[in-house]
Amino acid sequence: MKPKFLLIIPLTVCLQSYSQQSFDSVLNKINPEKWSAAVEKKLSSLENKIIAKTERSIRKLQKQEAKLKKMLSAVDSVNAKNIFGEAQQKYAQLSKRLKSRVSFPDGRMSGEYLPYLDSLKGSLSFLNENNNFLSAAKSAKVSDALNVFNEFENKLHQADAIKEFIKERKQQFSDILNHYSSLPGKFTNALAKYNKETYYYSQQIREYKEIFRDPDKLLQKTLVALNKLPAFQQFMKEHSELAGLFTIPNSYASSLAISGLQTRDQVQQIIASRFGGNGSAGQIFSQQVQAAQSQLDRFKEKLNALGGGSGDIDMPNFKPNAQRTKTFFERLEFGTNMQSTKSNVVFPTTTDLSFMVGYRIDDKKIAGLGIGGKIGWGKDIHHIAVTGQGLNFRSFIDVKIKSSFYASGGFEYNYQKPFNELQQVYDLNEWQESGLLGVTKIVSIKNKVFKKTKLQLLWDFLSYKQIPKAEPIKFRVGYNF
C-alpha cells in the first residue's frame, strides 16, 4: 500500500502544476483586471441609463394618469378612486425598487435568453470561483465586476416588472374607454400619449438588451481563451442560463434512461398510421417538416415586422419614431457638401466645400447647419491659382418623399469676395442670401467612406435679386459619414 500511496502524491502535484500553468497561460491572454474594469464601466453606464429612462417615463406616465383620473372622476368618482387609488403608490414602489440593491432568489434572469449576457456572467463567475489563481488586485476587480453585473441584472428585472405593470394599466384604461360612452375626447388623447410613452419605454429597454445579443471583440477574445480550459467548459455546462433551460438528467444515455422506449420499427409504424401515406416514416416526416417550415418562414416575417422576434412585442396604434429611443449624439449625422461653379466675368472657377451637421427629427426628416469656404482655382487650366474666394453659412432640411428621394430646402448666407482678415466679413451687407428648394437622391455605394452619397438638384429662388446675379440652378454632391 505504501508504494502506491507514494506514487499518488507526485501525480497529484504534477496535475496541480499543469492546471496552474494552463490557467496562467489563459490569464496572460485575457488580462482579467483590464477586462473586468471594461465590463464594470460598460454595465454601470447602461445601468444609469436604465434608471434615468425609467424615472423619466414614470413621471410622464403619472402625469397622464392624473389627467385620466380627473376626467373619469367627473363621470364615475367611485370607480376612478378604485382604479387610480393605489397607482401612485405602486409607481413609487417600482421606482424605489429600481434604485435599490435587490438580488434574485434563484440567481437567474427572467424573460428572453441573451447569449452575450449569459457568457459574460459565466466568465465572471468562473474567474471569481477560481480566484486562488489570481492576484489579490485581480481577484478584487473580478469580484467588483460580478457585483456590478448582478446589479445590472437586477435593473433589467425591475424594468421588466415595470413594463408588466404598465401593460396591465393600459388594459385597464382601454376597458374604461370601452365601458363609458360619456367620456370626453380628451380622455382618448391622454390615453394615446400614455400608450406612446409605454411603447417608447419598452423599445428603449429592448435596445439596451440588444447590446447583449452579440459579443464584442473583448468578450470574444476572453471566451476563446477561457474555452481552452476544460474546467470552464464544464462550469458553463452546469451553471450557464442555457444549461438551466435545457437541463440534462444524470441518467442520460445510460441503460436506465432507454428502458421502456419504443424501438425504431415501432416508431415508424406509429408515424405511418398517424399521418398516412405509402412512403417510409422518413419521407412522411420530411414532408411534414417542409410544410411546417413554410408556415414558420411566414410567421418569422410577421414577427420581424412587429418587433424583431425579441419576445418584447408591443404593437402601437400609431406610427412609431425609431429616433425617439436614440441619444442626441446618436441622432446626429456628419457630412460634406461640394458644388463647383464655372468662371465668368466677375468670378473665377470656384468650389464650395462645406461641412454639415444634421439632426434626425424623425425617420423621415433631418435638419441641420453647415459652414464652409469657397475655393478659387483660377480662370482656366492655363491659369491655375488656388485662392480663398469667400465663406458660407448654411441651414437645411430634408424630408423623405419615397424610397431614397428627399424634398430639400435651405437658407444660406454667402460671402462672395476674397478676404485676408476676419474683420472684412463682419459687414452683413456684403453677404448674399440664398433660398433653396429641390430634390435630393441618396445613392448607396459599397464603400465604407462613400457608402451614403447625396446628389442634390436645387433652385435658388433668391438668385434673381443678387448683385451680381448668381446661377439659379445648383448641383451638389455630398457624402455622409
Would you kindly provide a written description of the structure presented here, covering whatever features stand out?
The chain has about 475 residues and is α+β, with helices and mostly antiparallel strands. It folds into two domains: about 20-245, no CATH class; about 330-480, Porin (Beta Barrel), CATH 2.40.160. It contains 13 helices and eight strands. It has helices at about 1-30, 30-75, 75-85, 85-100, 115-130, 135-180, 185-210, 215-225, 230-240, 240-245, 255-260, 265-275, 280-305; strands at about 330-340, 350-360, 365-380, 385-400, 405-415, 430-445, 450-460, 475-480. An eight-stranded antiparallel barrel has the order 1-2-3-4-5-6-7-8. Helix 2 runs antiparallel to helix 7 and helix 6 runs antiparallel to helix 7. The N and C termini lie far apart (about 75 Å).
Question: Can you give keywords for this protein?
Answer:
481 residues, alpha+beta, Porin, 2 domains, eight-stranded antiparallel β-barrel, disordered N terminus
H-E string: HHHHHHHHHHHHHEEEEEEEE
What does the radius of gyration come to? 33 Å
Category by helix and strand content: alpha+beta
Fraction in beta strands: 15-25%
Report the helical percentage.
Answer: 40-55%
Mean pLDDT: 78
Terminal-residue CA separation: 76 Å
Low-confidence stretches: 3-19, 307-311
Main sheet: which strands, in order across? 1-2-3-4-5-6-7-8
Profile the largest sheet.
Answer: 8 strands, antiparallel, barrel
Task: Say how many strands there are.
Answer: 8
Brief digest:
The chain is an alpha+beta fold and 481 residues long. The protein is built from 13 helices and 8 strands. The chain has helices at 2-30, 32-73, 77-84, 87-99, 115-129, 136-179, 185-210, 217-226, 230-239, 241-245, 255-258, 264-275, 281-307, and strands spanning 332-341, 349-360, 365-378, 384-402, 405-415, 431-444, 452-460, 473-480.
